[in-house]
Design goal:
Elements (H helix, E strand, L loop, with lengths): L1 H4 L1 H7 L1 H7 L9 H14 L9 H14 L5 H6 L10 H10 L5 H25 L7 H13 L8 H20 L19 H13 L3 H14 L15 H11 L1 H13 L2 H25 L7 H22 L8 H16 L5 H26 L5 H5 L20
Helix pairs in contact: 2-3, 3-4, 4-8, 5-7, 7-8, 8-10, 9-17, 9-18, 11-16, 12-16, 15-17, 15-18, 16-17
Protein backbone atom coordinates (compact mmCIF):
# COMPACT_ATOMS: atom_id res chain seq x y z
CA UNK A 1 0.00 0.00 0.00
CA UNK A 2 1.11 3.57 -0.74
CA UNK A 3 1.09 4.71 2.87
CA UNK A 4 3.57 1.96 3.84
CA UNK A 5 5.74 1.79 0.73
CA UNK A 6 5.92 5.56 0.28
CA UNK A 7 5.00 7.15 3.64
CA UNK A 8 6.45 10.56 2.76
CA UNK A 9 4.48 10.76 -0.49
CA UNK A 10 1.33 9.79 1.37
CA UNK A 11 2.07 12.55 3.88
CA UNK A 12 2.02 15.23 1.20
CA UNK A 13 -1.29 13.84 -0.04
CA UNK A 14 -2.96 13.65 3.39
CA UNK A 15 -0.76 14.28 6.47
CA UNK A 16 -3.28 13.24 9.12
CA UNK A 17 -4.25 10.08 7.26
CA UNK A 18 -0.62 9.12 6.66
CA UNK A 19 0.09 9.43 10.39
CA UNK A 20 -2.93 7.38 11.42
CA UNK A 21 -2.40 4.65 8.82
CA UNK A 22 1.22 4.23 9.85
CA UNK A 23 0.64 4.25 13.61
CA UNK A 24 0.93 0.45 13.71
CA UNK A 25 4.39 0.81 12.13
CA UNK A 26 5.60 2.99 14.97
CA UNK A 27 8.91 1.11 15.13
CA UNK A 28 9.62 1.73 11.43
CA UNK A 29 12.65 3.95 10.86
CA UNK A 30 10.57 6.47 8.92
CA UNK A 31 7.84 6.89 11.54
CA UNK A 32 9.70 9.41 13.71
CA UNK A 33 10.19 11.63 10.66
CA UNK A 34 6.55 11.22 9.64
CA UNK A 35 5.48 12.26 13.12
CA UNK A 36 7.90 15.20 13.01
CA UNK A 37 6.51 16.35 9.65
CA UNK A 38 2.95 16.14 10.95
CA UNK A 39 3.81 18.30 13.97
CA UNK A 40 5.29 20.92 11.62
CA UNK A 41 2.07 20.83 9.60
CA UNK A 42 0.01 21.04 12.79
CA UNK A 43 2.03 24.12 13.77
CA UNK A 44 1.29 25.69 10.39
CA UNK A 45 -2.45 25.03 10.79
CA UNK A 46 -2.53 25.86 14.52
CA UNK A 47 -5.82 27.60 15.37
CA UNK A 48 -5.23 31.02 16.95
CA UNK A 49 -8.60 31.95 18.39
CA UNK A 50 -7.96 33.02 21.98
CA UNK A 51 -6.26 36.10 23.39
CA UNK A 52 -5.61 34.30 26.69
CA UNK A 53 -3.15 31.75 25.32
CA UNK A 54 0.61 32.12 25.11
CA UNK A 55 0.25 31.52 21.37
CA UNK A 56 -1.54 34.84 20.94
CA UNK A 57 1.32 36.65 22.67
CA UNK A 58 3.80 34.96 20.34
CA UNK A 59 1.71 36.12 17.38
CA UNK A 60 1.59 39.71 18.66
CA UNK A 61 5.33 39.72 19.29
CA UNK A 62 5.93 38.58 15.71
CA UNK A 63 3.82 41.43 14.37
CA UNK A 64 5.60 43.89 16.68
CA UNK A 65 9.02 42.74 15.47
CA UNK A 66 7.90 42.83 11.83
CA UNK A 67 6.82 46.46 12.12
CA UNK A 68 10.23 47.44 13.55
CA UNK A 69 12.20 47.39 10.32
CA UNK A 70 15.39 48.63 11.93
CA UNK A 71 15.31 46.00 14.69
CA UNK A 72 18.49 43.91 14.78
CA UNK A 73 19.42 40.61 16.36
CA UNK A 74 21.85 42.54 18.55
CA UNK A 75 18.88 44.51 19.89
CA UNK A 76 17.17 41.22 20.82
CA UNK A 77 20.26 39.78 22.48
CA UNK A 78 20.76 43.05 24.31
CA UNK A 79 17.42 42.56 26.07
CA UNK A 80 17.92 38.88 26.91
CA UNK A 81 17.88 38.28 30.67
CA UNK A 82 16.16 41.57 31.29
CA UNK A 83 12.52 42.10 32.26
CA UNK A 84 11.66 41.82 28.53
CA UNK A 85 13.15 38.37 27.80
CA UNK A 86 14.28 35.77 30.30
CA UNK A 87 15.46 33.26 27.68
CA UNK A 88 16.94 33.18 24.19
CA UNK A 89 15.30 30.70 21.81
CA UNK A 90 11.77 32.05 21.36
CA UNK A 91 12.63 35.75 20.79
CA UNK A 92 15.44 34.73 18.42
CA UNK A 93 13.18 32.46 16.36
CA UNK A 94 10.46 35.13 16.31
CA UNK A 95 12.96 37.76 15.18
CA UNK A 96 14.28 35.60 12.32
CA UNK A 97 10.75 34.93 11.00
CA UNK A 98 9.81 38.60 11.38
CA UNK A 99 12.49 39.60 8.86
CA UNK A 100 10.51 37.76 6.18
CA UNK A 101 6.86 37.78 7.22
CA UNK A 102 4.34 38.66 9.92
CA UNK A 103 2.35 35.48 9.25
CA UNK A 104 1.97 33.56 12.54
CA UNK A 105 1.41 30.33 10.59
CA UNK A 106 5.05 30.41 9.49
CA UNK A 107 6.19 31.11 13.04
CA UNK A 108 4.21 28.21 14.46
CA UNK A 109 5.41 25.90 11.71
CA UNK A 110 8.95 26.65 12.90
CA UNK A 111 7.84 26.12 16.49
CA UNK A 112 6.49 22.75 15.33
CA UNK A 113 9.80 22.02 13.61
CA UNK A 114 11.76 22.53 16.83
CA UNK A 115 9.24 21.04 19.27
CA UNK A 116 8.42 18.18 16.90
CA UNK A 117 12.03 17.11 16.46
CA UNK A 118 12.53 16.44 20.16
CA UNK A 119 9.01 15.05 20.67
CA UNK A 120 9.36 12.54 17.84
CA UNK A 121 12.89 11.56 18.85
CA UNK A 122 11.81 10.98 22.43
CA UNK A 123 9.15 8.52 21.29
CA UNK A 124 11.74 6.75 19.13
CA UNK A 125 14.33 6.63 21.95
CA UNK A 126 11.82 5.15 24.38
CA UNK A 127 10.95 2.42 21.88
CA UNK A 128 14.67 1.67 21.44
CA UNK A 129 14.88 1.10 25.20
CA UNK A 130 12.06 -1.47 24.90
CA UNK A 131 13.34 -3.97 22.30
CA UNK A 132 10.55 -6.51 22.83
CA UNK A 133 7.11 -6.30 21.24
CA UNK A 134 4.71 -4.15 23.26
CA UNK A 135 1.83 -5.93 24.93
CA UNK A 136 -1.58 -4.27 25.26
CA UNK A 137 -0.76 -2.72 28.63
CA UNK A 138 2.56 -1.30 27.44
CA UNK A 139 0.81 0.07 24.36
CA UNK A 140 -1.68 1.81 26.64
CA UNK A 141 1.10 3.40 28.67
CA UNK A 142 3.00 4.44 25.53
CA UNK A 143 -0.17 6.14 24.33
CA UNK A 144 -0.49 7.88 27.68
CA UNK A 145 3.14 8.97 27.47
CA UNK A 146 2.51 10.60 24.08
CA UNK A 147 -0.28 12.69 25.62
CA UNK A 148 1.42 13.78 28.86
CA UNK A 149 3.13 16.68 27.05
CA UNK A 150 1.27 16.46 23.72
CA UNK A 151 1.90 18.28 20.45
CA UNK A 152 -0.66 21.02 21.16
CA UNK A 153 1.63 22.22 23.90
CA UNK A 154 3.47 24.26 21.26
CA UNK A 155 0.93 26.77 22.54
CA UNK A 156 3.38 27.12 25.45
CA UNK A 157 6.39 26.69 23.18
CA UNK A 158 9.08 27.81 25.64
CA UNK A 159 8.20 25.63 28.62
CA UNK A 160 7.25 22.45 26.81
CA UNK A 161 9.99 22.52 24.20
CA UNK A 162 12.45 22.84 27.08
CA UNK A 163 10.75 19.84 28.70
CA UNK A 164 11.21 17.63 25.64
CA UNK A 165 14.81 18.77 25.16
CA UNK A 166 15.51 17.85 28.79
CA UNK A 167 13.94 14.41 28.35
CA UNK A 168 15.77 13.91 25.04
CA UNK A 169 19.24 14.31 26.53
CA UNK A 170 18.33 12.24 29.58
CA UNK A 171 17.13 9.41 27.33
CA UNK A 172 20.39 9.67 25.38
CA UNK A 173 22.22 9.21 28.67
CA UNK A 174 20.14 6.14 29.47
CA UNK A 175 20.70 4.58 26.05
CA UNK A 176 24.46 5.16 25.86
CA UNK A 177 25.25 5.25 29.61
CA UNK A 178 27.43 8.28 28.97
CA UNK A 179 27.20 11.25 31.32
CA UNK A 180 28.24 13.69 28.60
CA UNK A 181 24.62 13.70 27.45
CA UNK A 182 23.49 15.00 30.83
CA UNK A 183 25.26 18.27 30.10
CA UNK A 184 22.89 18.68 27.16
CA UNK A 185 20.05 19.18 29.64
CA UNK A 186 21.70 22.46 30.65
CA UNK A 187 20.69 23.90 27.25
CA UNK A 188 17.10 24.05 28.46
CA UNK A 189 17.92 27.16 30.48
CA UNK A 190 18.18 29.06 27.18
CA UNK A 191 14.70 27.87 26.20
CA UNK A 192 12.89 28.62 29.48
CA UNK A 193 14.50 30.27 32.49
CA UNK A 194 12.56 28.14 34.99
CA UNK A 195 14.59 25.12 33.92
CA UNK A 196 17.16 26.31 36.40
CA UNK A 197 15.27 23.94 38.73
CA UNK A 198 15.70 20.79 36.58
CA UNK A 199 19.32 21.79 35.95
CA UNK A 200 19.91 21.97 39.71
CA UNK A 201 18.26 18.55 40.08
CA UNK A 202 20.45 17.14 37.32
CA UNK A 203 23.55 18.65 38.93
CA UNK A 204 22.68 17.00 42.25
CA UNK A 205 22.17 13.68 40.47
CA UNK A 206 25.50 13.99 38.63
CA UNK A 207 27.21 14.75 41.94
CA UNK A 208 25.55 12.13 44.14
CA UNK A 209 24.74 9.46 41.58
CA UNK A 210 22.21 6.74 42.34
CA UNK A 211 21.11 7.13 45.95
CA UNK A 212 17.85 5.42 45.21
CA UNK A 213 16.72 4.62 48.75
CA UNK A 214 17.44 8.17 49.88
CA UNK A 215 15.59 9.63 46.90
CA UNK A 216 12.68 7.27 47.52
CA UNK A 217 12.24 8.46 51.12
CA UNK A 218 12.50 12.06 49.93
CA UNK A 219 9.88 11.27 47.28
CA UNK A 220 7.41 9.89 49.82
CA UNK A 221 7.86 12.86 52.18
CA UNK A 222 7.47 15.46 49.44
CA UNK A 223 4.42 13.71 48.02
CA UNK A 224 2.52 14.43 51.24
CA UNK A 225 4.04 17.92 51.43
CA UNK A 226 2.72 18.60 47.92
CA UNK A 227 -0.83 18.34 49.22
CA UNK A 228 -0.37 21.50 51.30
CA UNK A 229 0.60 25.04 50.36
CA UNK A 230 4.08 26.50 50.92
CA UNK A 231 5.21 30.05 50.19
CA UNK A 232 8.07 29.20 47.90
CA UNK A 233 9.31 32.79 47.68
CA UNK A 234 10.37 32.57 51.32
CA UNK A 235 12.75 29.65 50.74
CA UNK A 236 14.09 30.38 47.24
CA UNK A 237 17.73 31.55 47.32
CA UNK A 238 18.80 34.93 46.04
CA UNK A 239 18.81 34.93 42.26
CA UNK A 240 19.80 37.52 39.66
CA UNK A 241 17.36 40.42 39.73
CA UNK A 242 15.65 39.55 36.43
CA UNK A 243 14.78 36.02 37.65
CA UNK A 244 13.90 37.19 41.16
CA UNK A 245 11.47 39.73 39.68
CA UNK A 246 9.88 37.08 37.47
CA UNK A 247 9.51 34.62 40.36
CA UNK A 248 8.05 37.32 42.58
CA UNK A 249 5.57 38.23 39.85
CA UNK A 250 4.33 34.62 40.02
CA UNK A 251 4.31 34.44 43.81
CA UNK A 252 2.68 37.71 44.79
CA UNK A 253 -0.82 37.49 46.20
CA UNK A 254 -2.48 39.32 43.28
CA UNK A 255 -1.18 36.78 40.77
CA UNK A 256 -2.12 33.86 43.04
CA UNK A 257 -5.67 35.23 43.36
CA UNK A 258 -5.87 35.72 39.58
CA UNK A 259 -4.62 32.18 38.88
CA UNK A 260 -7.05 30.76 41.42
CA UNK A 261 -9.95 32.59 39.80
CA UNK A 262 -9.02 31.17 36.41
CA UNK A 263 -8.92 27.65 37.85
CA UNK A 264 -12.43 28.08 39.24
CA UNK A 265 -13.65 28.79 35.69
CA UNK A 266 -12.17 25.53 34.37
CA UNK A 267 -14.29 22.39 34.27
CA UNK A 268 -13.49 20.00 37.12
CA UNK A 269 -12.43 17.18 34.81
CA UNK A 270 -9.82 19.41 33.14
CA UNK A 271 -8.53 20.69 36.46
CA UNK A 272 -8.24 17.26 38.11
CA UNK A 273 -7.10 15.10 35.18
CA UNK A 274 -3.44 15.69 36.04
CA UNK A 275 -3.90 14.85 39.71
CA UNK A 276 -5.72 11.60 38.95
CA UNK A 277 -3.09 10.38 36.50
CA UNK A 278 -0.33 11.41 38.90
CA UNK A 279 -1.83 9.31 41.68
CA UNK A 280 -2.05 6.33 39.36
CA UNK A 281 1.53 6.62 38.09
CA UNK A 282 2.99 7.24 41.53
CA UNK A 283 1.08 4.32 43.06
CA UNK A 284 2.36 1.89 40.44
CA UNK A 285 5.92 3.16 40.77
CA UNK A 286 5.94 2.86 44.57
CA UNK A 287 4.46 -0.64 44.37
CA UNK A 288 7.09 -1.73 41.86
CA UNK A 289 9.93 -0.34 43.92
CA UNK A 290 8.81 -1.81 47.22
CA UNK A 291 7.78 -5.23 45.98
CA UNK A 292 9.86 -5.97 42.89
CA UNK A 293 13.04 -3.87 43.00
CA UNK A 294 15.22 -6.89 43.76
CA UNK A 295 14.51 -8.13 40.23
CA UNK A 296 15.82 -5.07 38.40
CA UNK A 297 18.28 -3.30 40.72
CA UNK A 298 21.21 -4.79 38.79
CA UNK A 299 19.95 -3.47 35.44
CA UNK A 300 21.91 -0.24 35.03
CA UNK A 301 19.58 1.56 32.63
CA UNK A 302 16.51 0.89 34.75
CA UNK A 303 18.27 1.74 38.01
CA UNK A 304 19.58 5.05 36.63
CA UNK A 305 16.09 5.89 35.44
CA UNK A 306 14.22 5.04 38.63
CA UNK A 307 16.81 6.78 40.81
CA UNK A 308 16.67 10.03 38.85
CA UNK A 309 12.88 9.81 38.59
CA UNK A 310 12.49 9.67 42.37
CA UNK A 311 14.81 12.68 42.76
CA UNK A 312 13.11 14.73 40.05
CA UNK A 313 9.61 13.85 41.27
CA UNK A 314 10.59 14.87 44.81
CA UNK A 315 11.56 18.38 43.77
CA UNK A 316 8.52 18.60 41.49
CA UNK A 317 6.34 17.76 44.49
CA UNK A 318 7.90 20.64 46.41
CA UNK A 319 7.28 23.01 43.51
CA UNK A 320 3.69 21.79 43.27
CA UNK A 321 3.21 22.77 46.92
CA UNK A 322 3.74 26.41 45.91
CA UNK A 323 0.30 27.99 45.29
CA UNK A 324 1.25 29.03 41.75
CA UNK A 325 0.12 26.92 38.79
CA UNK A 326 3.19 27.77 36.70
CA UNK A 327 5.57 26.06 39.15
CA UNK A 328 3.34 23.00 39.28
CA UNK A 329 3.99 22.43 35.57
CA UNK A 330 7.11 20.44 36.42
CA UNK A 331 4.78 17.67 37.58
CA UNK A 332 4.06 16.99 33.90
CA UNK A 333 7.76 16.22 33.37
CA UNK A 334 7.76 14.13 36.52
CA UNK A 335 4.75 12.19 35.22
CA UNK A 336 6.57 11.64 31.93
CA UNK A 337 9.62 10.23 33.70
CA UNK A 338 7.45 7.96 35.85
CA UNK A 339 5.58 6.74 32.77
CA UNK A 340 8.85 5.94 30.98
CA UNK A 341 9.99 4.07 34.09
CA UNK A 342 6.80 2.03 34.20
CA UNK A 343 7.11 1.18 30.51
CA UNK A 344 10.58 -0.25 31.09
CA UNK A 345 9.49 -2.09 34.24
CA UNK A 346 6.06 -3.35 33.22
CA UNK A 347 7.34 -6.89 32.75
CA UNK A 348 8.15 -6.97 36.49
CA UNK A 349 4.58 -6.29 37.60
CA UNK A 350 2.87 -9.45 38.93
CA UNK A 351 0.54 -10.72 36.21
CA UNK A 352 -2.24 -11.39 38.71
CA UNK A 353 -2.07 -7.83 40.01
CA UNK A 354 -2.12 -6.47 36.44
CA UNK A 355 -5.14 -8.59 35.61
CA UNK A 356 -7.06 -7.40 38.68
CA UNK A 357 -6.06 -3.75 38.34
CA UNK A 358 -6.48 -3.53 34.54
CA UNK A 359 -10.06 -2.18 34.56
CA UNK A 360 -9.11 0.62 36.97
CA UNK A 361 -5.89 1.46 35.10
CA UNK A 362 -7.66 1.42 31.74
CA UNK A 363 -10.51 3.62 33.02
CA UNK A 364 -8.20 6.25 34.52
CA UNK A 365 -5.92 6.44 31.49
CA UNK A 366 -8.88 6.52 29.09
CA UNK A 367 -10.43 9.36 31.10
CA UNK A 368 -7.17 11.31 30.91
CA UNK A 369 -6.74 10.70 27.17
CA UNK A 370 -10.29 11.79 26.34
CA UNK A 371 -9.82 15.06 28.25
CA UNK A 372 -6.42 15.73 26.66
CA UNK A 373 -7.78 15.12 23.16
CA UNK A 374 -10.67 17.46 23.93
CA UNK A 375 -8.10 20.15 24.91
CA UNK A 376 -6.22 19.51 21.66
CA UNK A 377 -9.41 20.13 19.68
CA UNK A 378 -9.21 23.80 20.72
CA UNK A 379 -6.17 24.39 18.51
CA UNK A 380 -6.43 21.54 16.00
CA UNK A 381 -8.63 22.60 13.11
CA UNK A 382 -10.26 21.25 10.00
CA UNK A 383 -7.18 22.22 7.99
CA UNK A 384 -5.00 19.96 10.18
CA UNK A 385 -7.29 16.97 9.63
CA UNK A 386 -8.43 17.40 6.03
CA UNK A 387 -5.83 19.38 4.08
CA UNK A 388 -2.25 18.95 2.96
CA UNK A 389 0.75 21.32 2.71
CA UNK A 390 -0.10 22.23 -0.90
CA UNK A 391 -3.74 23.18 -0.27
CA UNK A 392 -3.61 24.59 3.28
CA UNK A 393 -1.92 27.92 2.31
CA UNK A 394 -4.88 28.77 0.07
CA UNK A 395 -7.65 27.95 2.57
CA UNK A 396 -8.33 30.73 5.06
CA UNK A 397 -11.10 29.07 7.02
CA UNK A 398 -9.77 26.79 9.75
CA UNK A 399 -12.50 25.76 12.18
CA UNK A 400 -11.31 24.33 15.52
CA UNK A 401 -12.53 20.78 15.93
CA UNK A 402 -14.09 21.58 19.29
CA UNK A 403 -16.74 23.66 17.50
CA UNK A 404 -18.22 20.46 16.07
CA UNK A 405 -18.86 19.14 19.59
CA UNK A 406 -20.51 22.18 21.12
Amino acid sequence: MLYRKHPYISFFIWPFGALLLNILNIRASYFKNLLWMFIIFYGYTFVLNSEERDADRYKNKLIEFYEQKDLSLEDIFGEVYTENYTDILQPTVTYIISRFTNDPQILFALFGFIFGYFYSRNIALILELIPTKLNKHETLFLTLLAFLIPIWQINGFRMWTAAHIFIFFFLKFLKHNNKKYLFGTFLTFFVHFSFIFPIVIMSIYMLLGNRTNLYFVFFLITFFVSEVSINFSKIVPDLPLVFQDRIESYTNQDYIDFASSKQVQVNWYIMYRGRIIRYLLYSLLVFLYLIRSRFFKNKQVVWNLISFTFLFASVSNLLLAQPVASLGRFIAISNLLVCITLLLLFEYLPKKMVRIASPIIFSIISFYLIIEIRIGFDTMGTSTIALNPFIAPFINENIPLIDFFK
